[in-house]
Specification:
single chain, 236 residues, alpha/beta, 2 domains, seven-stranded mixed sheet, 44% helix, elongated
Length: 236
């Protein structure tokens, strides 16, 4: 409603409340534009414009990396993990193909608190991007080091240095190393709960939009009401 007031909108096919419901139906349920157009009694082009506007309004509210670090400093530690958001791309789109997951997608880095609650998620990069490279690109590794925050992560972050703690690698590990890895896994698994919460929004399970829009969609999901996904933030 505030956005409509800013641009001086006089008349719309849907009220502000109905437009918000339209956007949530798309994000939460993953309904297509055609399905939403039929359900709301408007055209497909109108659905596209209304959802794009709502997503941009929500994404603009996302906090910065510095603000996310301020929240993280109040925690005993954080966990860092990467997830692949599947997209509909063909084999020719090499930059988006993840060799680890054997599918096309976008790489998103996720930070969580000790209780598995989502603290923030980074902008999306092509699926071929390594997790450690993505974390460095977004400045997450440097931010964690500067904040002197303990961070648990998986083997993909080997060599991250600073405050990032990773499990031991190798097959012939000593007993104390295996115990360390077991404890490490129990702590880190809480971060996977946050990723599961993020993917509770069905649209993120298979994105069919332009890759240029995926970051805005992730940001929009993060700043939705607390009862939906918890207090989220943007790492940018």
């Amino acid at each position: 409603a505030a956005r409509r007031g800013e641009i001086g909108t006089r008349w719309r096919r849907l009220t502000a409340n109905r437009q918000a419901l339209l956007a949530l139906a798309h994000l939460r349920c993953g309904d297509t534009y055609a399905q939403l157009a039929t359900g709301f009694g408007i055209g497909v082009a109108t659905v596209y414009r209304y959802i794009g506007e709502a997503v941009d309004v929500l994404a603009a509210l996302a906090p910065t990396l510095a603000e996310a670090m301020d929240i993280a400093r109040t925690k005993a530690f954080v966990t860092l993990d990467g997830t692949l958001l599947p997209i509909d791309r063909i084999a020719a789109d090499t930059p988006y193909y993840s060799g680890k997951h054997k599918r096309h997608g976008m790489n998103v880095q996720v930070l969580t608190d000790p209780f598995g609650r989502l603290l923030g998620a980074s902008p999306a990069l092509p699926g071929s991007t390594h997790d450690l490279t993505a974390a460095r690109t977004h400045g997450i590794v440097d931010a964690l080091t500067d904040a002197d925050l303990k961070c648990w992560a998986d083997k993909a972050y080997q060599g991250g240095g600073g405050s990032i703690r990773v499990p031991f690698r190798g097959r012939r590990l000593k007993r104390w190393q295996r115990r360390h890895n077991n404890t490490h896994a129990k702590i880190r698994c809480l971060g996977e709960q946050a990723i599961a919460t993020l993917k509770g929004w069905r649209l993120l399970r298979k994105l069919r939009c332009s890759t240029n829009r995926i970051t805005a969609i992730v940001h929009a999901v993060l700043v939705t009401p607390r009862h939906e996904v918890g207090k989220g933030s943007l790492l940018s």
